[in-house]
## 1
Amino acid sequence: MNLGLPTSRRQVEVIDQWLREMSAQLEAGRSSSRRDTNESLLTIHQFALLEVIRQTGVQCFERGDFLRRVLNRYTELIIE
């Protein structure tokens, strides 16, 4: 999901709606194990965060880069 240049709150509203819908679908259709569902939820949350980070980086590259590094390290720690 690439929403282009962040010019208004609409981009975050779209991401929020997408995240809520995807989370609800995963929770409702839980035919997998809880662990598989949690891994899928982690993936969609990371995807949403990466889009917010991308949008932040458009306005301030250094802030976006910092947030991306924090998220990458956080993800590594969770997976280990």
Note: The chain has one domain: 10-79.
## 2
Amino acid sequence: MAKSAIGNSKTLPITSAQEVRHFTGPVDDHTVAEILGLMPTAEDLEVAVVYAQGEGDIAGTEGHELSGKPAQIYEILAQDDMYQSDER
């Protein structure tokens, strides 16, 4: 019998645009497609979004470098208008 996605751990892959946008907010379709191509987990997305929002600096200084899929997702998010900073 197939397991329900409700209540499963953060290790199951994200498989829909709706799930991606649940974590990232209203990013564009191209961004969603690139992220889905990585077959990320909810945990991957959560970590990447925290860093993309500029909240990952504290963890980074404590030895928790962004790597793997979260790093790839971060790079994708950084190219999306929603996550680009106006600071120059």
Note: The chain has five helices and no strands.
## 3
Amino acid sequence: MHDSKEYDRKYRKNHKEEIAKRKKKYYEEHKNDEIYQEYHRKATLKSYWKNREKRIMQMRQWHRNLITQVITHYGGKCTCCGEAELLFLTLDHIDGQGAKHRKQFGGRYSGRKVYQWIIAQKYPKGFQVLCFNCNCGKARNNNVCPHKS
């Protein structure tokens, strides 16, 4: 007798594309079905709560990677004082229009959405890396960092 869990694991590993096609087909056929939607909603919630801590850690790691990727692209250190510790760095709109830009993405998680937008737009000009001190100082000093005034 074989181990059914091991067999299932190997089968899923060896037939990923076939399984994905079947799932997609089933979804397309049933996506407007209220019973399917309710089942899917409950299953998603159940899975979330079962794996909550793992999902939270995955999202935190994904967010750190997103920020690291963008900040590294724009130089990886504060353009004003040279601070290079990633935990102290943030992205700055050179023209001082960061709040206006974030409002375009609306409400919650708008900062993360800006980072995603930057990657999707292939790292446009108009951004620089600043440490939080320089960024706050710039905001409070008419768009000029106190180091430079």
Note: The CA atoms of residues 115 and 121 lie 10 Å apart.
## 4
Amino acid sequence: MATRFTAVAAVLGLLATLLSLGAWRNHAVPRAAEPRQPHASERSHRRHSLAKKLLATTAVLALSATVVSISVLAVFTDTQSVGNNTFSTSTAVDISTSPTTALVTFSGMMPGDEVTNPITVSNAGTPELRYAVTSTTTEDVLAAELDLTIKSGVTTCTNAGFDADGTVVYTTGDLGSTAGINVIGDPTQGADTGDRTLAGSGSEILCFNVALPLASTGPVDTTTTATFAFQAEQTQSNP
């Protein structure tokens, strides 16, 4: 603050000196001489001298205003930082099944035959997940003749125990198709009808039953292979 006022005082002092100098020159006692009319060159010189004084005065005033302006803008400041804003991602969504292959198979199947087997679906990760299942087959004719039914909560997942209890997850329908059929839920992102949810490290057992109805007329000597794709996604921030 002391430096700011010293600078302003110095500028104002310089201004006062210039103004005093101009006043002294204008009021100095002239030498004794005969009155005479000033020559044209003298008048021109005086006008130039006055213009220089006015110019100098203007420059000093401008400098003074600049110094005052700068001193006004010099304010106290402070900064407070907020650190340690740390973020980390969760473990990956991880779904697993047991078995991982040949869940339901039957060689030499005839009308009236069926096969029933359980599969354990597990959430091998920490975050909660939802999943859907799609069935894709290698051909469409026999796949359309074979009936697939999926249940949860079956006490004894065998041909004999399949109808005894449990809740139907996939109502009896085609085994699959070459284009793929959603047999549980819908793999489209977000919560869809039929999607199933598993908590972190949770699991459940589903019971799959595949039957060739007694009324089926074919096709004969045909093979189809189904692939069940268990597709999972996070539920957190994914309504």
Note: The first helix runs from residue 2 to 27.
